[in-house]
Design a protein that fits this description.
This protein is of the alpha+beta class. The chain has a domain at about 55-185: Endonuclease, Chain A (3-Layer(aba) Sandwich). It is about 35% helix and about 15% strand. It has helices at about 45-55, 60-75, 125-150, 160-185, and strands spanning about 30-35, 35-40, 80, 85, 90, 95, 100-105, 150-155. The radius of gyration is 19 Å and the shape is globular. Bound molecules: zinc ion (ZN). Zinc ion (ZN) binds near residues 109, 114 and 117.
Length: about 180
Amino acid sequence: MYRKSVESDQSNRRNPKPKNAVSSPRSERTIALGSGVRVAYPRPVSDAASAAMRGNRKRDTKPELAVRRLLHARGYRYRVNAPIVLLTVRVRPDIVFRAARVAIFIDGCFWHGCPKHGTQPKSNSHYWSSKIERNIARDRIYDRALRSAGWAVVRIWEHDDPERAADRISARLAKARSLISKTAV
Ligand SMILES: [Zn+2]
């Protein structure tokens, strides 16, 4: 069964699994894709699309919180969504270790085109594919800009095991810190 409710990505921030989503009729909205391109705001006609839209949260996603809790428990201190201003772009990684220059992104499987779960809903495919392609392209631009400014970038998929993700981050931080101590006077 399809649930034909119109759900905005904002309205479900605090309520990720509504039992009976209240439909809120809106006038035809459009979304800017950049470079002057706008597409009609898609109506999530399938459960998959609704779930994907609910998952489009900017911060404090479940996997993000899980990884942050683990890092905190291991004694690491970090900043959340702190802006890093580079020559060409301004980036807000999900977790920032400024002194060590390590930037962590926890990418949602749908929005960032995970090879395992990044399948697109059939409906509104034009919207989804252009949006996801843009996200992927932007991710690579951010990675290049950060790395060329001396940052290490760790990308974690939403589906990754949080413990293993924390291990990867710990390893990267240890490497970054050993580099720092070698260069410090
Ligand atoms: Zn995935």
